[in-house]
Amino acid sequence: MNATAKPSGAEKRQEFYDRLAPQNLAPLWEVLRGLLPNEPRSKAAPHRWRYADIRPLLMESGHLLTAQEAERRVLVLENPAMAGMSRATATMYAGIQLIMPGETAPAHRHTPSALRFMLEGEGAFTAVGGERTTMRRGDFIITPAWAWHDHGNEGSDPCAWLDGLDLPLVQFFEAGFNEHYNDDRQTITRPEGDAMARFGSNMLPLKPESRYGQTTPIFNYPFAQTRAALVSAAEGEKPDPHEAMTLRYSNPLDGGWAMPTMSAWMTYLPAGFETKPMRSTDGIVMALAEGRLSARIGEQDFALEESDVAVAPGWTWRSYRAEKDSFLFCFSDRVAQEKLGLYREERGRV
Ligand code: GTQ
């Protein structure tokens, strides 16, 4: 550059920006496009974790440290585009938790909400707010925000499940609290099945109130019930071209989603059924409960076997083809987006 030349427009601007920075100021016009993209561009990548790949490592961790030592013995499912952030999608944490026979994952509570989708083993229980529930394969189990919870395995097999938590959301709000119980296991005050009897039998107490605030009072939605409902519902109506036969887990007190920050649902795709592409603003974590299917997420095809987990980032086209009768468990931040007026979806032409 010629020393006598007038500064160019760009140089003048840069000189101006350099004086803004020390005052903790920045020019919006340089970042506006990134702040307001015309449509969402998820930082998360489509991905699939094969349970067959996870399982040997999970079992190895079972001999490396106790559930007691670990507090929670979990292999975190990290989105490959967000390594080190403990995120499966932009807003959802996912992990695979293992409890060996005889072990207890000690009681604690936290403001992040958790859900469990049971994958393997018999004899595990979760205790929530003074009541226990037995965890069976395919069950959807809820740990409401701020409810004491401990997990145990009284069977003879290792037990493993998918954990889903709203941790990234809570971190974003910087609103997380955590507390340890004064014992490994919490005091049990009600018999197993109490919540189901009161709230899950198409009947309600005269003054219905959830023990868990905005979260459903039912904390185990057994796969046997969910599966039967989906199969019967599919007999009465042709599966939807985009959503196949989908039912969501609901709060019986208001018919809304079961949890305040995470939505969960299950999709049944009869063998041979193929969905049309759709996309939505929520990034979805899915686990195949039963069957075999091929998931197309963005430009990638993933074969899903039982207990495999996959991620469809927000605003990314997804479609499925069932090789066998398939039951796909899904969760996302959809309910939070709906409450905030952000949720959108788009369906490809039929
Ligand atoms: O079971 O309470 O995967 O607190 C991560 C954090 C599970 C649990 C996780 C947790 C838990």
Characterize the structure shown.
This protein is of the alpha+beta class and 350 residues long. Helices cover 19% and strands 31% of the residues. It has 8 helices and 22 strands. Strands 1-19-16-21-14-13 form a 6-stranded antiparallel β-sheet. A hairpin with a 2-residue loop joins strand 6 and strand 7. The N and C termini lie far apart (60 Å). The model has no long low-confidence stretch (mean pLDDT 96).
> What portion of the residues fall into strands of 2 or more residues?
25-35%
Cα distance, first to last residue? 60 Å
Q: Which word captures the global form?
A: globular
Largest sheet: 6 strands, antiparallel
Question: In angstroms, what is the radius of gyration?
Answer: 23 Å
- Give me the side-by-side strand order of the main sheet: 1-19-16-21-14-13
Round the mean pLDDT to the nearest integer and report it: 96
Bound molecules: 2,5-dihydroxybenzoic acid
Secondary structure: number of strands: 22
Low-confidence segments, given as residue ranges, are none
By secondary-structure content and strand pairing, the structural class works out as: alpha+beta
